[in-house]
Automatic annotation (TrEMBL):
UniProt source species: Methylobacterium gnaphalii
Cofactor(s), by name: FAD
Family matches, as Gene3D superfamilies: 3.30.390.30, FAD/NAD(P)-binding domain
Pfam families reported in the protein's UniProt record: Pyr_redox_2, Reductase_C
Gene Ontology MF, one: oxidoreductase activity, acting on NAD(P)H
Database matches in InterPro entries: FAD-oxidoreductase/Apoptosis, FAD/NAD-bd_sf, FAD/NAD-binding_dom, FAD/NAD-linked_Rdtase_dimer_sf, Reductase_C
Residue ranges constituting the Reductase C-terminal domain according to the UniProt record: 336-406
Entry keyword set: FAD, Flavoprotein, Oxidoreductase
Protein name per Swiss-Prot or TrEMBL: Pyridine nucleotide-disulfide oxidoreductase
Region Disordered, annotated ranges: 409-429
Residue span, FAD/NAD(P)-binding domain: 8-313
GO-annotated cellular components: cytoplasm
Length: 429
């Protein structure tokens, strides 16, 4: 079969892969379409995994993503792509099969960052959470009633998992090297509100605490964790929530600009080769893609946000079908939501790097507020805790590059609480 007859291949059959394939069909692509995914499941939604699935309100297999368009596609599920030959236009699968493609959409997302390699095997009872099978395994382990759950990392997934564990009435400790949870995402000034919510919910939050290693019982199951600064804690269930690494290992020999921070793309979502030139016919979208974002000075950024995966997949699909001289730049205002400890958090823009944060509505003390982040006199992000009414207005101001703080004089807004946001130093590794 010639590459042209082979049609478009989408590698990574999850949110970005599915929405990208649907966008291709919606925009008139009628040729052959194949989705290759290493998981055995049809695309499913990840946000409920750390929330409703862990707390037992939803089964892991109840998270299937709706199909919005009749795809008429071939599905190669349970098939890991292990190599890409761009010259021959062939994709190699772990089974040994080689498949000819014409154009490629890479949507292989990210994986949970594992616990760093140790000399011996890790004890059992240590989990990560990225996929549906991880969530099902963790849910079963929680249902047994561990004596204490230790969560390593107070980022979004660590906090949501802690909240779900408390909903189940389980004793929970969260250990994080930063002064508060969500310090890297929102800064410790806002993160302090999450510390209060955690403590009110009965979570033992250990700030400035790094876990160094584990001890196992006679059956090889984790029974203790040791802290780097001394001391230990008894636990028989650990959730390692150390963030994610992009799934680009399979592209190692493909001559593309790819590493664990993502597959570098140009503004049109075209993958870049090792010399920084767009690779013909290869596009990327979702968590795996690192693209220059005009709103943030053209910085090449990869997001781990649901909204970006859907929007970027649609954009990449559009450009895949467009002529060479009609490639449009991807403009994106990052946003995410989270629900934890009874609070709905919504964030627009990138707060990281802000020099000031101002509460413009509600109050941190009431745990219900809208806060706006500024950097060098410009509004760059806003976050709401159960107070999202004005968020779209701030999103517009962020996109417009408005001065900080914007929207002064609105009837129900005033700045009562302003100061440094308290972001930790960038990670050394
Ligand atoms: C537990 C959890 C909770 C979340 N909650 C929120 C939330 O509340 N709000 C929010 O905005 N975002 C949330 N997110 C983030 C959001 O789910 C992701 O941004 C989104 O799933 C990204 O979609 P994707 O398709 O780019 O990548 P992924 O969903 O990671 O999918 C990539 C797919 O490609 C497959 N794959 C990888 N390598 C290969 C290969 N070599 N060959 C074939 N297939 C491969 C993977 O197995 C996977 O199925 C959450 C994520 C997780 C894990």
């Amino acid at each position: 079969m010639s590459a042209a007859e082979a049609g478009i291949f989408v590698v990574g059959a999850s949110l970005a892969g599915l929405r990208g394939a649907e966008a291709l069909r919606r925009q008139g692509y009628a040729g052959p379409l194949t989705l290759v995914g290493d998981e055995p499941h049809l695309p499913y939604d990840r946000p409920p995994l750390s929330k409703h699935v862990l707390s037992g309100e939803l089964d892991a297999d109840g998270t299937a993503l709706p199909h919005l368009v009749a795809l008429d596609a071939q599905w190669r599920l349970g098939s890991k792509a292990v190599g890409l030959d761009r010259v021959a236009k062939r994709l190699r699968l772990a089974s040994g099969d080689e498949l000819a493609y014409d154009r490629l959409l890479i949507a292989t997302g990210a994986q949970a960052r594992p616990w760093p390699a140790t000399d011996g095997p890790l004890p059992s009872g240590i989990h990560t959470l990225r996929g549906r099978d991880d969530a099902a395994a963790l849910r079963s382990a929680l249902a047994v009633g561990p004596n204490r759950v230790l969560i390593i990392g107070g980022g979004l997934i660590g906090c949501e998992a802690a909240s779900s564990c408390r909903d189940l009435g389980l004793p929970v400790t969260v250990a994080d090297p930063n002064p508060t949870p969500l310090a890297r995402v929102l800064g410790s000034s806002i993160g302090a509100v999450i510390t209060e919510r955690m403590q009110a919910a009965g979570v033992d939050f250990r700030a400035g605490t790094q876990v160094e290693g584990f001890e196992a019982d006679a059956a090889g199951r984790v029974c203790k964790a040791r802290f780097a600064k001394g001391g230990e804690i008894e636990t028989n269930l650990v959730i390692v929530a150390l963030g994610a690494t992009r799934d680009t290992a399979w592209l190692e020999a493909a001559g593309l600009m790819a590493d664990e921070t993502g597959l570098a793309c140009d503004g049109a979502c075209r993958a870049l080769d090792a010399r920084g030139r767009p690779a013909p016919g290869i596009y990327a979208a979702g968590d795996v893609a690192r693209t220059p974002i005009p709103l943030y000075g053209g910085r090449s950024l990869a997001f781990e946000h649901w909204g970006n995966a859907t929007a970027q997949a649609g954009h990449a699909a559009r450009n895949m079908l467009a002529a060479e001289d009609d490639q449009r730049e991807y403009h994106h205002l990052p946003s995410f939501w989270s629900s934890q400890f009874g609070v709905n958090i919504k964030c627009v823009g990138l707060a990281e790097g802000a020099d000031t944060v101002a509460v413009v509505q509600g109050s941190r003390a009431a745990h219900r507020f809208l806060a706006v982040y500024g950097r060098e006199g410009r509004t760059i992000a806003a976050v709401s805790f159960d107070e999202a009414r004005w968020l779209p207005a701030y999103a517009e101001r962020i996109e417009a590059g408005a001065a900080f703080p914007p929207i002064l004089g609105a009837t129900d807004q005033s700045i009562k609480d302003t100061g440094p946001p308290g972001f930790p130093e960038p990670r050394s590794r």
